[in-house]
């Protein structure tokens, strides 16, 4: 089964599972509800769809089913970022970084990390 890119709602569920590890629908819904009101049946339905898409797996060996992310966080982030970069900035990482730095007040630590990453990339070339 081919894994597809998650929708925004599916990504929120994946973020909970990446942070907490395998969970029941109730645990995921409780975590999502901390930020906004989310109905249990909505979370359940989304997680069932995600199971069909191959984004999640489900352990049915116990009375309460436990769901687990079947896509890695870093791989998903990379795919979504590449799609965003292509659709929003015509593939230009420079335009994206310039926009982010222009609109975001980066901390001194963030700027140091960015400089270190640039230096690392320069050495790799």
SSE topology:
Layout (H helix, E strand, L loop, with lengths): L7 H13 L4 H8 L7 H14 L2 E4 L6 E4 L3 H17 L3 H11 L4 H17 L1
Antiparallel strand pairs: 1-2
Brief digest:
By secondary structure, this protein is mostly helical. Helix content is 64%, strand content 6%. Helix 2 (25-32) crosses helix 3 (40-53).
Report on the structure:
The model has no long low-confidence stretch (mean pLDDT 91). The protein is mainly α and 125 residues long. Strand 1 and strand 2 form a beta hairpin. The protein is elongated and about 55 Å long. Strands 1-2 form a two-stranded antiparallel sheet. The protein is built from 6 helices and 2 strands, in the order H-H-H-E-E-H-H-H.
Can you tell me the residue ranges where pLDDT is under 50 for at least 5 consecutive residues? none
Overall number of strands: 2
Indicate the percent of residues in helices. 55-70%
SSE series = HHHEEHHH
| Helical segment count | 6
N-to-C terminal Cα separation, in Å? 38 Å
Overall spatial form: elongated
Strand order of the largest sheet: 1-2
β-strand percent reads: 5-15%
Largest sheet: 2 strands, antiparallel
Derived from helix and strand composition plus strand pairing, the structural class reads mainly alpha
**Average residue pLDDT:** 91
């Amino acid at each position: 089964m081919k894994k597809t890119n998650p929708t925004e709602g599916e990504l929120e569920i994946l973020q909970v599972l990446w942070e907490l590890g395998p969970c029941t629908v109730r645990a995921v819904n409780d975590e999502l509800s901390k930020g906004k009101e989310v109905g249990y049946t909505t979370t359940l339905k989304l997680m069932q769809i995600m199971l069909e898409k191959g984004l999640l797996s489900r352990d049915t060996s116990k009375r309460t089913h436990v769901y687990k992310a079947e896509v890695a966080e870093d791989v998903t982030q990379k795919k979504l970022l590449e799609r965003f970069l292509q659709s929003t900035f015509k593939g230009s990482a420079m335009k994206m970084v310039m926009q982010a730095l222009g609109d975001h007040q980066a901390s001194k630590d963030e700027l140091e990390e960015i400089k270190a990453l640039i230096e690392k990339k320069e050495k790799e070339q």
